[in-house]
Amino acid sequence: MNNAVAGFSKLSKKEKINWIANTYFLSPEEALNIIRNYTNSDEKLQQLHDEFIENTITNLYIPLGVAPNFLINGQYKTIPMAIEESSVVAAASKSAKYWSTRGGFKATVIDTEKIGQVHFTFNGDAAKLHSFFDQIKPKFFSDTQSITKNMQQRGGGILDIKLKDKRSLLENYYQLHATFETKDSMGANFINSCLEQFATTLKDEFQDSDLFSEDETLKVVMSILSNYVPNCIVRAEVSCPIEDLAEKHITNPQEFAERFLQAVQIAEVEPFRAVTHNKGIMNGVDAVILATGNDFRAVEAGVHAYASKNGQYASLSHAKIENGIFTFWLELPLALGTVGGLTSLHPLVKLCFDILEKPSAKELMQIVAVAGLAQNFAALRSLTTTGIQEGHMKMHLNNIINQFEATEDERRLIKSHFKKNAVSHSAVVEFIETIRK
Ligand code: MEV
């Protein structure tokens, strides 16, 4: 089927929806119903969502849950999490409660530097380019004053601009490598606006300079922030005497601590395991990033680059046992905002910020890192004790029950049966079929 369409973006929302329903569905009315069911009846609210992106037809919901009892630097927090994967919120809550009686989570922001680059080519004398750069460097700051004024008032701005010679990587390739402090905003717009002005200044000053010959040319390729922020780092940690690790499922805390440590060490040296290990961390991280309207693609890209910073993809978390003390921690690069963007537009995001008691960007970095560490702890605890499937299958059971639209009576029967029997998709389906006969 050839379903190309001309001028789609010019159609009204209704026309777009009708085109989708009529083009892809044998029963367009059914499709229209689903789309309608997920469209907010509050027209103003729906319009707000419609305008976040282009060609909106409806909304895709994912659940927003909360994980309470997170003791972070001595203060209790309830963490909102937007995620579709069963057992993530339950695992976070379980970890939170567990560590709340063992000293809680400690989180520290190590640095908050953001990065942006103007990529350009220059085919002339490198020494001349360097002295030209030194000459015009103040101009980059003065030409961006209208952009940086407000940020400077908030204590942020451009930290530094360096000229980098990258010719060992690519012919004639240079960069303006700039660093920024963006306080409570993620800073993408601010950084990109500064960079585009740097590019203009660079080109204009080059044109006006009499340092260069006719044959020497400078061409800007692009100006863009980097989502790799290895100097925008937060650390989260838990620690307690080994014997305090004991609880219902941890009857031998020394053995548990040692096995846990081994599990972390495996993720430190084995990329196949490291990816899954870090995925578990990102279950917690992404859920909070989404709930707080931050850019999860940016965070994902930056975090995984950071996981490879030593040349091989490795675990983001680490553990040690020293003098009878078990310590588990991670460091994450997180460029987050608590002002600007969706944070002030999306009513649910605003609600999540209220639940978090209006954190600063630094506090949000700490909360996100803690959610990641808690998630990682929960996963490793299950993996090194009962195995992951026990908890997963309990949650999975609910999904299967919902899928089969079980009645209240059927639910009771199914849940009581699977308290004593192992959950698998086929076993549940078989049981449902039996009770329905
Ligand atoms: C599943 O979403 C996450 C885990 O695979 C993480 C891990 O293996 O550490 C359980």
Folded structure, characterized:
By secondary structure, this protein is of the alpha+beta class. The protein folds into 4 domains: 8-50, no CATH class; 64-109 and 235-382, 3-hydroxy-3-methylglutaryl-coenzyme A Reductase, Chain A, domain 2 (Alpha-Beta Complex); 114-226, Alpha-Beta Plaits (2-Layer Sandwich); 392-436, no CATH class. 49% of the residues lie in helices and 19% in strands. The protein has a 4-stranded antiparallel β-sheet. A 4-stranded antiparallel β-sheet has the order 5-6-4-7. A two-stranded antiparallel sheet has the order 1-2. The relative contact order is 0.12. Bound molecules: (R)-mevalonate.
Short key terms for the protein model shown above:
3-hydroxy-3-methylglutaryl-coenzyme A Reductase, Chain A, domain 2; alpha+beta; four-stranded antiparallel sheet; single chain; 437 residues; 10 strands; binds (R)-mevalonate; Alpha-Beta Plaits
Characterize the largest beta sheet: strand count, sense, and whether it forms a barrel: 4 strands, antiparallel
Shape annotation? globular
CATH 2nd-level architecture of the largest domain: Alpha-Beta Complex
What fraction of the residues are assigned to beta strands by DSSP? 15-25%
Q: Which small-molecule ligands are present, each listed once?
A: (R)-mevalonate
* Sequence stretches where pLDDT stays below 50 over 5 or more residues: none
Family: Belongs to the HMG-CoA reductase family.
EC number: 1.1.1.88
Keywords: NAD, Oxidoreductase
Pathway: Metabolic intermediate metabolism; (R)-mevalonate degradation; (S)-3-hydroxy-3-methylglutaryl-CoA from (R)-mevalonate: step 1/1
